[in-house]
Design goal:
Blueprint lengths: L1 H80 L12 H9 L1 E2 L5 E2 L3 H13 L2 H16 L27
Antiparallel strand pairs: 1-2
Helix pairs in contact: 1-3, 3-4
Amino acid sequence: MDDDCDTKKTRELMVFKTIISHFKKSAQLENKIEILSECQSEQKHIIETLIKKEKLLEHKINKLELACQNIKNKQLKQIVLAPISPTKTNTTNIKSADRFQSKTFNSFGQFKPTHKKRTQNHTALFEKQSIEDSIALDIAVQENTYGRDNFGDNKDDYDGDDFSDNEDRDDRY
């Protein structure tokens, strides 16, 4: 009978130990579940914050792209509307620049007509072409309009003395 009592007590003790170990394991699991749920809520918060920051960055990038496009458009307008004159490159008074263009001189001090229609046509073409093409045309028009005199000689070669061969001319005039 003692043996039966001892075996009963040992069985109850073993069951009791098993129940305690199950409670401990369930408590540990509950703690782990709580920790995981806290981590998930923190992760959700971090993800929401990242999404908000990404949207803000996209908005700022769009603003910067728009600003860059506006700057490019302004530069293109400046190139297109810039007067074609060697001395006045950044004038805002286009009428005075047009007057300057209409009165250029040849090497003998005579007025040389310029072709206003030609420059206006080039200005219209600039709006259709890329920036590089318009700059190339602008340079070509400058060379054709201002860089040459009536004889095809470059004005830079002019030494200022057109009458050096005619030394016996009358000084009264």
